[in-house]
Amino acid sequence: MTEPVVAPGRPRGGRRDEILATFTRHIAERGYDRANLGDVAAELGMSKGTIVHHFGTKDRMLAEVQERYMRRRLDEAHALLARLTAPEERIAAFVHAGVRYSTLEPATTVAFQREVVRLTDVPGMETARAQRDAYRDLVVAVLHEGEEAGVFAPGDARLRSLQMFGSLHWMWTWFDPQGRMTPEDVAAEFCRTLLRGLGVPDERGAAASDPHGAVARCVTEVLTHESPGTGVPGLVP
């Protein structure tokens, strides 16, 4: 599996990852603009200069958070596509995984979702932007394949992918993993709605959406056993 990118000349793991994990949590709680390197340094009992030594700038830190996040998502997406073949199963897997990130990597997922708009045109985000586009292209390709196979009704695959991502990327504003619905049940409801809209027969859609079914189990296996190590405390090993 791909290891996290570390800037040339910088040490791997240890204090550096602790800094990034704390910074990520601050973004999740406050947003990037209100995340302050001085606060991160004070919480960790170090100087602000130590953080600058490891990362250079606050913008570079955010870029690394986004790049690490999207690298893991791409690795998982390829693993899911290798295991599942039916178009409705593949789309359901993307949704199941998208919901599950909020419980497996809550701080990192919220930080990414809160600041995803910065991938649009902020300098320094080119790598993360390319990773995001690559992930989107995987989903669009599955939507095209499903339409060509007659599983999905004809439609605009790019627009459909945006509808899917829109529902998942705003979950940080309302989703409570400890709320009345489990993450698995939320994912199942999202899947049923999406697949029905794509024209998938109810029986096939129900099987792909099942929170305890083969697709959900596959997602669990990939996310909990095949995710690359990040070295960041609190993330899936």
UniProtKB/TrEMBL annotation:
Keywords: DNA-binding, Repressor, Transcription, Transcription regulation
Nucleotidyltransferase found in the keyword field: no
Protein name: TetR/AcrR family transcriptional regulator
PROSITE patterns tied to this protein: HTH_TETR_2
DNA-binding region: 36-55
Residue ranges of every copy of the HTH tetR-type domain listed in the record: 13-73
Pfam families named among the record's database cross-references: TetR_C_24, TetR_N
